[in-house]
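Data availability (excerpt). The following record was deposited with the supplementary files.
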Amino acid sequence: MQIDTLIKNADLFTMRGAGVGYVDEGAIAILNGTIQEVGNTSDLEQKYDAQEVIDASGKMVLPGFVDCHIHTYWGALRGVGQDTRGWMHKGVGPFRLYLDNEKQYIGSKMNILEGLAAGTTTFGDYSPAINKIAGFYSELGARARLTCHVREVPDVLHELEEDDLYPFDKKIGQETLNENLKLIENWHGAHDNRITALLGPQGPDFLSEELLEKVNKISEEKNVGIHMHVAQAARETKQMQKRYGMRSIEFLEKRGFLNERLIAVHLSEATKEEMELLAKSGASMILCSGAKAIIAGEVPLTVPFIEAGGVVGLGSDQCSGNNCNQMINEMKLTTLFNKIKYTNPEILPAWKVLRMATIEGAQALGIGHQTGSIEKGKKADIVFIDLNKKTMQPVMKTPMRNHVPNLVYSARGNEVEQVMVDGKTLYKNNEYLTVDEEKIMYDLKKASSEIMEKITPEHFAISKNATYMKASQL
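Predicted structure:
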């Protein structure tokens, strides 16, 4: 049979079944961007005649990583807002004022390139001006599950104290909802479902009850999922209790949000009982370990959600909080933080967080039927890891395999040699094959410089950001 591509001689990790689905001397047959068959090299070589043959000797081959929650638009502000309390209100507030749509777009492109080079093939991007960013995903060739910020709170958080009740502006709410509806109309299902859309109410504290109910109704009518920050911080709980007299998850349950269409991000403030309720409702959870640690000094509960039967994916969040949009980093932080939290070295082992970054992440985003594992009928989203890198050495196969622990605990991201989406190579040997990296990085540096030229010590005095005031004197 004639096919487009045959990958052979791989140390193949398919994520099929309940574990990592290892195949020694593995092979993958690809036709029209779809996986035709997975098996041993000797078997598939006899069955298929391929236009392109990729010899993956000395490579760990696995499904592309799924970054379930990433705000790429913060890219132009990497490195600001850390090491301070009140990250959203006081940390990034002064900088956010100058992050216009064009600079958001420029920063997004850089962040997406960073993720792709480290093995991310699916981006759960949650950004304003998302329709323009969708065009870049189209050009690049990556898989994207896109969400627009729907909110009624104006950009005044830097002026508020953390206990102040957020003001709502109905005009902003309608404008952002319209942007989200435009995203669904223009991009949902584009490129044979490589680009899809979700509804993105920013959080139950950022929308009025009226607008939240409107979003939920649209979700049901259009059968489009809801990607929302839920119980993400103490400030959200305060807002909800002040405004409605109840916590976020109880509020959402009473209004019919707890079902399989809900993708709940963070859950840092959720109790064990609330997490169990969410998991049993069919909602999925997205965990952003790096961002929550840096922004809030927290390790969100994860194990109760998993034990209740819930599906958890991983997200890198934003690079002005987390600083690093790489899923290898998220896997390592997730397993380490939970081992420390539970004082149990056996909890969330490396193979489990690898599943969270691949098949379970895809399931959490509602696209597990399409990607996340290497098996017949799924899209050929594939990553090649160079096992000759020092961080992956030595390679052991018997009496035990050490590929997965080395990937999770030792790798840094530069071990990724090649990245394919829909069977097409987008990145290979440190080179992007579909976009101009040099131009993107030039624009990014220029945009960041323009923002910083507008920032003065007075901005920090207004935001009461003592940490940065001290840092500026070092």
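Summary of structural features: The chain has two domains: 2-63+373-432, 65-364.
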